[in-house]
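Hey, I was hoping to borrow your eyes for a little while. I'm sending you its amino acid sequence along with the backbone structure tokens. Take your time with it, there's no hurry, and the full record follows here.
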Amino acid sequence: MKKTIIMLFCLVFFISCGKDKKKDEPGILDAIESVSDLNNFAKEAEKIEEENEKLLTATPISNEALKKLLPEDILNYPRKKFSIGNQFMADIAMAEAEYENENGNLISFSIVDGAGETGSAMVTLARLGFTRDFEEQSDRGYRKSTTINGYKAVEEVEKDDYNDYQNSKIDLMVANRFLLSIEGEGLSVSQLKKAIEELDLKALEKQAN
């Protein structure tokens, strides 16, 4: 497992380097920096391996506890529907909810528990995306790593092709076990950050201990 995780880290590392590569050939300092980054990746892989072993044997969060983590409303958007668990992946604990305002704008919120074989594999892969600092931009929007209230996160903004507004999304890792995703139609990243403040993330941290 450790070799697999390290290989995944190296793959992400070299893909990232390829995206950032300039036309000019890198110099000695660039090479040294790359090796240093790769060493940091290896250290992070060892840390994830240790935590992954714990996740494999951890008891998944109960459906009752998951339901309590889905607010009845977010940013005054009432909850319209929710689902607990997944009929195609019975061994993973997860929850999804959808919120809608009077204008038809939607907020989607999901939680995935990294406990168990399938959950730990999903969260381990997701953590690769939170490992390095990055920023990507295009004429349609941007995607970058960040930190929100002390939690590692990735925020993304993309222009809507059919409406004159932007769609935003934030992925958040809590206690290196729970993967949260919140997405809003016509909402800014700052609004989604306010929505995250309404979530009981401390309750999730307690579930991880």
Q: What stands out?
A: The chain has a mean pLDDT of 83. The first helix runs from residue 2 to 20.
